[in-house]
Write a structure and sequence with these properties.
This protein has about 325 residues and is of the alpha+beta class. It folds into three domains: about 40-85, LysM domain (Membrane-bound Lytic Murein Transglycosylase D, Chain A); about 95-145, Roll (Membrane-bound Lytic Murein Transglycosylase D, Chain A); about 170-320, Orthogonal Bundle (Lysozyme). It contains 13 helices and nine strands. The protein has helices at about 5, 50-55, 60-65, 110-115, 120-125, 170-185, 190-205, 210-220, 240-250, 260-275, 280-290, 290-295, 300-320; strands spanning about 15-20, 30, 35-40, 75, 80-85, 95-100, 140-145, 165, 165-170. Strand 8 and strand 9 (about 165-170) form a beta hairpin. The radius of gyration is 23 Å and the shape is elongated. This is LysM domain-containing protein.
């Protein structure tokens, strides 16, 4: 893809944690980072939603700031994330405690959910570890908020969705992206498992390594056809219109990037041409930065991270890893 499109897509490393509902069970480590930012070292049980709350930001901002794929639902313990402000920016709520007598069938997670507190705080308040057992009749000290919930503030007027990862795109590009996003939202589209099978079949047809195509698509969209970036990169392979026209000229027919099969075909054809023209790392960099840009300027720092992530995902897939399980 060219420079304009690829800057908008999400990049990540992929490992164990999926979903955003798992509570934090251990403390995190903060280290010095670039000006205006800190660094957060992910621990077992961490989630983006928890980290975002801790640093007074949103999941979407963390996804953009760290170039995470999809909705950032695959982070792993030991990974270092950028966080705003360089230090924790939110004040901890004042907590009181109530005594609760454990009943038969209770678990730490159930009690924490019932009292709307974190499992980490509940464990800490009672000097327990995550592996400790509780029993009926045991008294527990449960942290609860002392102050009432603040009244919700009036919603601010919606802002234009024309920026992503620190870059702003022309209004006409964003308008077309919004239009394509609305079209895809109204359509019945394949599941991620079905998209995976389509990518494999298309890759074999064009002689492209299926694990490479799968890794690129997972990085770009999480195998989801409904994704459209502000730069109007469309679908599972995150293809922009100019790349779609190029792929159309290669296959000899007009490709509709909104259609799953055509979208995958465009991305796979691009990978075929890139891997035929350059060694693997440069070809992967070309999908992100544009092959001409890589040859002229070398790989940008975010391009190097993109290549590293793609090759890691590819290796995991070759070892039998399935992110959908």
């Amino acid at each position: 893809m060219d420079d304009a499109c690829t800057s908008s897509r999400r990049r990540t490393v992929v490992r164990v944690l999926t979903g955003l509902a798992v509570p934090v069970l251990t403390a995190a480590v903060i280290t010095a980072g670039s000006p205006g930012f800190g660094q957060y070292k992910v621990k077992n049980g961490d989630t983006l939603s928890r980290i975002a709350t801790q640093y007074g930001t949103t999941v979407r901002n963390l996804v953009a700031l760290n170039n995470l794929p999809g909705n950032g639902n695959t982070i792993y313990a030991g990974e270092t994330l950028k966080v705003p402000g360089g230090k924790q920016t939110t004040k901890r709520s004042q907590l009181g405690r109530v005594t609760y007598i454990v009943k038969k069938g209770d678990t730490i997670s159930k009690i924490a959910k019932r009292f709307k507190c974190s499992q980490a705080n509940l464990l800490a308040a009672n000097g327990l570890r995550a592996t400790d057992h509780i029993y009926a009749g045991k008294p527990l000290q449960v942290p609860v908020k002392l102050h009432p919930k603040p009244k919700p503030k009036p919603k601010a007027p919606a802002k234009k969705n024309n920026s992503f990862a620190g870059r702003t795109y022309p209004d006409h590009v964003v308008a077309k992206a919004d239009q394509n996003r609305a079209i895809l939202k109204s359509r019945k589209l394949p599941t991620r498992a079905q998209m995976r099978n389509l990518i494999i079949a298309t890759s074999k047809h064009y002689g492209v390594d299926p694990e490479l195509a799968l890794a690129v698509s997972w990085q770009e969209s999480g195998w989801k056809q409904r994704v459209v970036s502000p730069a109007n990169a469309v679908g599972a392979m995150q293809v922009i219109p100019s790349t779609g026209r190029f792929a159309s000229s290669v296959v000899g027919r007009d490709l509709d990037l909104l259609k799953p099969r055509d979208n995958v075909t465009a991305g796979v054809v691009l990978l075929d041409r890139l891997t035929s023209a350059a060694e693997l790392q440069t070809a992967v960099a070309g999908y992100y930065q544009g092959l001409g840009g890589v040859k002229r300027n070398g790989m940008y720092p975010d391009t190097k991270l993109y290549v590293k992530n793609i090759l890691r995902i590819k290796a995991q897939l070759e070892r039998g890893w399935s992110p959908l399980k």
